[in-house]
Amino acid sequence: MNSIELMEKAAIAITEEIKAKWPSSFPVKVFAGPHNNGGDALAVSRILTLAGYDVEVFLFNVKGSLSPDCQTNRDRLVEQCPNVVFHEIDQKVDLPRLTEQTLVIDGLFGIGLNRPLSSSFIQLVKFINKSPSTVISIDIPSGMMSEDNTSTSQHAIIEADYTFSIHACKPAFLLTDCQQYIGHCKVLDIGLPAVVDKTIEYQYHLNQEDDIRTLLRTRDPFGNKGTFGHGLLVAGTYGMAGAAVIAAKSAMRSGVGKITLHTPATNNIIVQTTVPEAIIHNDADNFTFTTYEPDEEFDAVAIGPGLGKKKETETAFFKQLAQTTKPLVIDADGLNILSGHNAWYHYVPIMSILTPHPKEFARLCGESHFSSDYVMLDTARTMARNLRLFIVLKGHYTAICTPSDKVYFNTTGNSGMATAGTGDALTGILLSLLAQGYTPEEACRLGCYLHGLAGDIAANQMTEEGMTVMDLINALPSAIKKLKKINN
After folding, report:
1. Cα pseudo-dihedral 413, 417, 418, 424, rounded to 10
2. Contact 102, 135 (CB under 8 A)
3. What is the pLDDT of residue 360?
4. First CA to last CA distance, the chain
5. Crossing angle, helix 422-435 and helix 440-462, to 10 degrees?
6. Which of 26, 41, 87, 465 has the fewest CB neighbours in a 10 Å radius?
């Protein structure tokens, strides 16, 4: 299938989306650029016109040079739609009046854009953004780079109400600081041959159900609690027993055979009441973490939830770090302690999992903040690659950065999970999966997906506003059943 045929398929798919949402009574103003994104827009213009829509087209050909496919669709539009209102612009133009009833189709620039827009196009972008019209961007909002928008002015990107992305989601769409531009995003499948994907080495991947399902192992029907692993959780200080409870409960709900919780004795009653399944090893201090736990009898270790940051805790944390030989998860106060001791990074076992939220990650890097979400992501990728760690950068689309320089964006979860304890729950899930024998990459991908899916189930039952982390933990069995395709 050649490029012009693919362009036609894309235009048909976009037009079908438009026709399904807006009747032909809505006037359409199309802004097309000189490259292939403009060619898509011109093809959409033709199909909409033939479907009875009132379409006015502005083709910006200021350099007098169109891409071959754009030229083809320009000629098709003029030949097949003689009554269309068509402007080919090589200099200043009187822009149309845009009303609330107007549909604006943005086809100015696509993913081939590699530098910020010129001042004349920025003025056009501002004109469209200030209008009350509904704006539909083809493939990507014009002015946006598909990955790094650090150097792009926020006034130089179309603020779309809808973005119809062709074939695949663009990495920038998954970053928080780009959300204001893309509106409602839908990826349209235009039947690109599978061989196209196989010939490209992608750095970015989506954590999606069909892929994650293949990671979930069949449980041994003749297994015992030793078969399914023994995890060590180092968590909780005086007043923070809840973090230890949450992590322990989520680990038990994720299939681990046994959990041993190393925690101060002051937490015993709370833990034994709320997580009676957990084995308790008390610290030498009754109130805080001061003594490391040897890991010989365990299959995996997690450290950090509710740990505190006292001086003696920092010392014990370093000893735990230096002595641990089993797969390791570091979260919460473990990360905060690590951020204050850069030399200790060399003692973090390779292939360990770090699970920072953005502020924790900034502290790990010695930054007050990052100039953009892309810079933060790129920094996490570099750290994961150089230190041979897994960095689970938590957010709406949690980014799993691997030592092999791949990034997996998680696709489950919702804003109801922005509540106390959900990070501790993820730590417990990751510990459980590592103890069961999943590789660190499998644990990260499966664990993040189950964590978010349980959050989605909890939000559906309790609302995003009303759910708590315990609702998420209680929904973990349903999430596993859903992934196994067992009827709930």
Report:
1. -110
2. no
3. 97
4. 43
5. 140
6. 465
Please give, one letter per residue, the 3-state secondary structure of the chain: CCHHHHHHHHHHHHHHHHHHHCCCCCCEEEEECCCHHHHHHHHHHHHHHHCCCCEEEEEECCCCCCCHHHHHHHHHHHHHCCCCEEEEECCCCCCCCCCCCCEEEEECCCCCCCCCCCHHHHHHHHHHHHCCCEEEEECCCCCCCCCCCCCCCHHHCCCCCEEEEECCCCHHHHCHHHHHHHCEEEEECCCCCHHHHHCCCCCEEEECHHHHHCCCCCCCCCCCCCCCCEEEEECCCCCCHHHHHHHHHHHHCCCCCEEEEEECHHHHHHHHHHCCCCEEEECCCCCCCCCCCCCCCCCEEEECCCCCCCHHHHHHHHHHHHHCCCCEEECCHHHHHHHCCHHHHHHCCCCCEECCCHHHHHHHCCCCCCCCHHHHHHHHHHHHHHHCCEEEECCCCCEEECCCCCEEEECCCCHHHCCCCHHHHHHHHHHHHHHCCCCHHHHHHHHHHHHHHHHHHHHHHHCCCCCCHHHHHHCHHHHHHHHHCCCC
Q: Residue 163 forms beta bridges with which residues?
A: 137, 185
Phi, psi of 28 (to 5 degrees): -120, 130
Query: Is a pLDDT exceeding 80 seen at residue 137?
Result: yes
Tokens of 259: 């959990």
254 pLDDT above the threshold of 80? yes
- Angstrom distance (rounded) from CA 230 to CA 436: 8
Give the separation between CA 436 and CA 229, rounded to whole angstroms. 5
In angstroms, the CA 387 to CA 384 distance is 6
Question: pLDDT for 441-480, tens place per residue?
Answer: 999 999 999 999 999 999 999 999 999 999 999 999 999 9
Give the pair of three-digit tokens for residue 399. Answer: 């980014």
112 to each of 37, 109, 116, 339, 432, how far by Cα in Å? 9, 7, 12, 39, 44
Per-residue pLDDT tens over the stretch 68-83? 999 999 999 999 999 8
